[in-house]
């Protein structure tokens, strides 16, 4: 796991050096101009956020079925990163909206459903921290609710009249824009994996320390 962490962190660092240069060289969108380049950060963070939400959901199901500590560790690590990348998505989206729509926030369907999903995972972490006995199972159920919200976020721009761009933007990118976009996606993915691995290493070490405390207490070595 440590070797994988070093690899993903190195690739993320390389991407963070290369992607800004590619983004600056990409042609400007005819309507929005320079502000459109927020797109290269906003959309990749949203994509990674959806990925970690579903990873949390899968790990939560595994925990509910098998009560696996490893699944629980993966679920909580994924939930924490869902909050982080969700916050990045909302912030970059707000900056883009301020220039494109003239407001920092509007109760657009996609924005509202995304904000709801962010609050679900903030609730997940609060339940785990303060919910008492059974909080892990309740938090796992919240994660599944968050997963159910993701398809609604994605299709909202196709079902309802919305100010948000359609989902057809990414597939129709011209090559000079597509290359920096997918490099940015790769960079964000490597950064996410590095953070996830670091969090899992931390959780593994914390579990070992807890086990040592329990073993010391049982052996009568604890004062």
The assembly state of the depicted protein chains is single chain
The best one-word shape is: globular
Radius of gyration: 20 Å
Number of strands: 0
Question: From the helix content, strand content and strand pairing, which structural class follows?
Answer: mainly alpha
> What portion of residues is helical?
over 70%
- What gap, in angstroms, lies between the N and C termini? 35 Å
- Low-confidence segments, given as residue ranges, are none
Which percent range describes the beta-strand content?
Answer: under 5%
How many discrete domains? 1
Instruction: Give the SSE order as H and E letters.
Output: HHHHHH
Number of helices: 6
Mean pLDDT: 89
Largest sheet: none
Description:
By secondary structure, the protein is mainly alpha-helical. It has one domain. Helices cover 78% and strands 0% of the residues. It is built from 6 helices and no strands. The radius of gyration is 20 Å and the shape is globular. It starts with a helix and ends in a 5-residue tail after the last helix.
Characteristics:
single chain, 223 residues, mainly alpha, 6 helices, 78% helix, globular
Quick overview of this protein structure:
By secondary structure, the chain is an all-alpha fold.
Write the layout of secondary structure elements.
Blueprint: H1 2-25, H2 39-66, H3 69-100, H4 109-130, H5 135-159, H6 175-218
